[in-house]
Write a structure and sequence with these properties.
mainly alpha
């Protein structure tokens, strides 16, 4: 059994948080759905990369166990309405560092929204992902290494479903801080949307 982060959260958003996220960002539901479908795989791959080594895996597992029990999933609409972007920003900073700004801008370019709105969506999604992982960790009694293995599998599933997303992720996360994104960004965005919105 795997966490299945991407389909689970896409389903949660579509059934219990899409309107609230649209209201919070001032975007229409199509823009929110598109941005979410692109942002989630990148967050998943960031987590998979972060837990490739033992120290990173233990750090994430500790953070999840301490602050993310999954309770926010019980009333997702309310969480989104009242969410504090600072929490999400803190998670993104830990996972991605300064490159989170490039990721927000890239997602915005794909969807046709400004990077501030894109960053807002990322900041709301990050605690939701952590909550889902926390709920799964508790249920399955996962160790840090087992969590890392699960996240690696999640990252592989993303790559297999949309291979070009991996090149986008690497161009952002593994860059030398030059802020350059992949030239085929539109192609990657289209591939992600095709893979995850039309299933």
């Amino acid at each position: 059994m795997s966490i299945e982060i991407l389909p689970t959260i896409m389903q949660l958003i579509s059934s219990g948080g899409l309107k609230e996220l649209s209201d919070k960002t001032g975007l229409n539901t199509t823009q929110v759905t598109s941005a979410t479908a692109i942002a989630l795989p990148l967050i998943i791959q960031a987590m998979a990369k972060k837990t490739e080594n033992e120290k990173g895996a233990e750090s994430l597992a500790k953070a999840v166990s301490k602050d993310h029990d999954g309770s926010i999933l019980e009333n997702l609409g309310s969480f989104i309405q009242n969410s504090d972007e600072k929490e999400g920003q803190s998670i993104l900073k830990h996972l991605i560092g300064k490159d989170r700004t490039d990721i927000a801008e890239t997602i915005g370019n794909m969807v046709g929204i400004d990077k501030e709105k894109s960053m807002m969506i990322l900041s709301v999604l990050a605690p939701i992902v952590m909550g889902l992982i926390g709920k799964y960790m508790s249920k399955e009694k996962l160790t840090a290494s087992e969590l890392a293995k699960n996240l690696s599998e999640e990252g592989t599933n993303v790559t297999n479903s949309a291979p070009d997303a991996s090149s986008l992720f690497n161009s952002l996360i593994d860059s030398n801080g030059d802020g350059q994104v992949a030239d085929d960004v539109v192609k990657i965005g289209s591939q992600l949307l095709s893979a995850f919105l039309k299933k």
